[in-house]
Write a structure and sequence with these properties.
Layout lengths: L12 E3 L2 E3 L9 E4 L2 E4 L4 E6 L2 E3 L3 H6 L1 H13 L7 H6 L10 H26 L4 E5 L5 H8 L3 E6 L19 E4 L12 E7 L8 H11 E15 L2 H19 L12 E2 H11 L1 E6 L5 H4 L1 H7 L7 E9 L10 H14 L7 E5 L2 E5 L11 H8 L10 E5 L5 H6 L5 E6 L2 H13 L6 E5 L11 E6 L4 E2 L11 E2 L2 H8 L4 E12 L4 H10 L2 E10 L4 E9 L11 E2 L1
Parallel strand pairs: 6-9, 7-8, 7-10, 8-9, 10-11, 11-12, 17-18, 17-20, 18-19, 20-23, 21-22, 24-26
Antiparallel strand pairs: 1-2, 3-4, 4-5, 5-6, 11-14, 13-14, 15-16, 23-25, 24-25
Length: 559
């Protein structure tokens, strides 16, 4: 790249966990105040304005002015904006405007694939939070989800508007670092990031080799580059034709071709091989399944004599000597096949289970607490130490009602809540079956809405462990976009003085992100029980409001 390393004696300035250097000369910066950094070698100042670090010199801002104006015009016309923070926090799983729902379904699937095949294996391997560059961050939704998992994310983009650019950071409740910069002039010191994600953005680069080299400079030796949702073709002529079609469409609809900045615009398999040789990389190409209609697009195109449609993939790259991210762990593979071969008949079926000698009937459409173990573990943990005699208990997301049934053995009153109508029916049946119907009230509704302003001594919660939009009521037990964050923010208003919540989390889910959400809501989490199941560790946490947190008994039960 022709630039020097930071000059001796000049330390790079840190923002959170990221060390900044001058994007022009890569020399260390000097602090001129809490919102300003200076490069003495270039005589340039970089400021943080409205929460965004601005690392574009004036001449580069002018260079991108037309591109930014045209890009923002298109994005506004496409409806990619909202005044509601919920819109941004729901992406990519839901498009609350409905304007680009098909596009966001694809982005959600790609994001989930990135999580499963890259981020989760890196978390398990490194055993710590990650430092991630979100390149082409747009409104910052990816950085937001990473921040909720407890990672340090830098959202990098050219655009700073507040509807589809970095200015949208104001809509989020988990912190990340917005940075206005160019991909080939990143303002970060060498070797500090674990992962650099080109977030549907690499195809905007003028020179792939230069941009990827810059990302590799900032990565640690074993770091990973992820190329997500850039169009890939077998035949370069198909990509060139796509570009012409797009420019013609923009010219018709907006009066400009949106090509003021030259870019490579698409990838081909040959280009990826060339980049691998040039940069000494190994690629792992993962194509998510977007549905049968999407999978049949190439066949339909051939039959109709049309050009090859683009493929969108998650492409992971690492230096040839570095170990690539692990794929699906063997234990998860074996667990899935055990379920498919032996236990499928107990899921989403009418089945009678037994937990600690008590019958639990599970209706179709209801989470099975015995088969999936976490509900079973939480229920068995509820002794007199955790459920004081005569206390009031709220069983949030009750499912089959197992938590309510076991809590009612000691509590004076239990309220069970679930948004799934089938679960409400199931919980009422199990209260009758276990002869605790006089102490258990079952209500239908979302989180705390059914209980109004009531407060409880103990709140039980076995949350959905994975990010994503649920496909149906049963899937709500597995996936959500914001349930845990809403639970955490509302919990302090529903816990009685000296009370607590008991929440069960799994190492196979979003545990770190959920714990971060609890901390952000002013809650103190302590372990009261833990069970190692081999393929996952299930932990029961006690949550107290920070300003009223009391010391826990020493030790905790381990089984």
């Amino acid at each position: 790249m022709g630039r020097d390393s930071p000059a001796a004696g000049q330390a790079s300035i840190s923002e959170g966990s990221f060390a900044f250097t001058c994007p022009v000369c890569r020399v260390g910066l000097e602090a001129a105040g809490p919102e300003e950094l200076c490069c003495s070698a270039e005589g340039i100042s970089y400021r943080r304005v409205e929460g965004i670090w601005r690392f574009l010199p004036p001449e580069r801002l002018a260079h991108f002015e037309q591109f930014a104006r045209e890009y923002e015009t298109v994005r506004l016309a496409e409806g990619r904006h909202s005044g509601d923070p919920a819109y941004y926090r729901s992406l990519p799983f839901r498009d609350l405007t409905g304007c680009n729902a098909v596009n966001w379904r694809i982005r959600a699937k790609s994001f989930q694939t990135l999580m499963d095949r890259c981020i989760l294996p890196m978390e398990a391997k490194l055993g710590r939070s990650l430092r991630v560059l979100d390149l082409g961050a747009g409104s910052g939704w990816l950085s937001y989800h990473l921040a909720k998992r407890g990672h340090q994310a830098a959202a990098v983009d050219l655009l700073t508007n507040d509807f589809d650019g970095l200015g949208a950071h104001i809509h989020y409740d988990a912190p990340f670092t917005p940075v206005q910069a160019e991909f080939d002039h990143l303002p970060f010191a060498d070797g500090q990031a674990d992962l650099a994600i080109f977030n549907a953005s690499l195809h905007y680069a003028t020179d792939y080799a230069e941009v990827l080299s810059e990302a590799l400079r900032v990565l640690r030796p074993e770091g990973v580059v992820a190329i997500v949702d850039s169009p890939v073709y077998h035949d370069a002529s198909s990509g060139a034709r796509m570009v012409r079609e797009r420019e013609a469409q923009f010219q018709r609809e907006y009066g400009f071709a949106s090509n003021s900045i030259p870019s490579e615009s698409y990838l081909t398999y040959d280009r990826l091989e060339e980049l691998a040789r040039q940069l000494d990389l190994k690629w792992q190409m993962i194509e998510p399944f977007y549905g049968w209609r999407w999978a049949l697009r190439p066949l339909r195109a051939r039959l109709r004599g049309r050009r090859e449609p683009a493929r969108f993939m998650v492409i992971l790259g690492g230096r040839s000597k570095a170990e690539p991210p692990s794929s699906v762990p063997l234990w998860r593979f074996l667990t899935r096949w055990r379920y498919r071969l032996f236990e499928r008949g107990r899921y989403d079926r009418l089945v009678l289970e037994e937990v600690a000698g008590r019958p639990i009937l599970v209706l179709p459409g209801v989470f099975n607490p015995r088969l999936l173990r976490t509900g079973d573990i939480l229920a068995r943990t509820l002794d007199a130490r955790l459920i004081p005699p005569g206390s009031t208990v709220l069983d949030m997301g009750t499912g089959s009602g197992i938590g309510a049934v076991f809590a009612a053995q000691r509590a004076g009153r239990v309220v069970a809540v679930d948004v799934n109508p089938a679960a409400v029916r199931c919980a009422r049946i199990n209260a009758l079956l276990n002869q605790v119907e006089d102490r258990v009230e079952v209500l239908e509704g979302d989180l705390f809405a059914p209980v109004g302003s009531q407060r409880f001594d103990v709140v039980l919660f076995n949350p959905p462990y994975y990010r994503g939009a649920p496909r149906n009521d049963l899937d709500r037990a597995w996936r959500s976009t914001d349930v845990v964050e809403r639970f955490a923010s509302q919990l302090p208003e529903h816990v009685a003085p000296g009370g607590c919540a008991l929440v069960v989390l799994s190492s196979d889910g979003e545990r770190n992100a959920f714990l971060q959400s609890f901390r952000a809501a002013g809650l103190v989490a302590s372990v009261v029980a833990e069970r190692d199941l081999g393929n996952e560790v299930v932990t029961v946490y006690r949550l107290r409001v920070a300003n009223s947190a009391a010391a826990l008994p020493e030790g905790f039960a381990r089984r």
